[in-house]
Amino acid sequence: MTTKFAAILEQAGDSTWSAYSLTPSLVTGTGPTREAALADLRTAISFWLDFMKETGQPIPSPQTELVTVEVAA
User: Fold this and answer.
1) Cα–Cα distance between 20 and 45 in angstroms, integer?
2) Separation of alpha carbons 28 and 20, rounded Å
3) CA-based angle 61:54:19, to the nearest 5?
4) How far apart are alpha carbons 64 and 72 in whole angstroms?
5) pLDDT by residue for the chain (73 residues), tens digit each?
6) Closest Cα to residue 6, out of 21, 24, 27?
7) In whole angstroms, how far apart are CA 26 and each of 1, 14, 44, 71?
């Protein structure tokens, strides 16, 4: 079974990439490319899922809504 998690990708000034999941929060992945950061994030989420299962905690279903907010600059 697979589950889809929303992620945010950001490129740093040094051209490396970071990927952040929103659910579970505070799970990140990094790498020299977008693909590497996403692969690292998948691994991190898999570890988190294993931990939740091993400790008998419920795995929350992703309920993230991605929106764009406009702000005067």
Assistant:
1) 10
2) 5
3) 50
4) 25
5) 788 888 999 999 999 999 999 888 889 999 999 999 999 999 999 999 999 999 999 988 878 888 889 999 8
6) 21
7) 23, 22, 10, 25
pLDDT of residue 26: 83
Domain boundaries, the chain: 1-73
Cis peptide before 24 (omega within 30 of 0): yes
pLDDT (0 to 100) of residue 47: 95
| pTM for this predicted structure | 0.84
Q: Which CATH class is domain 1-73?
A: alpha beta
The DSSP bridge partners found for residue 19 are 9, 29
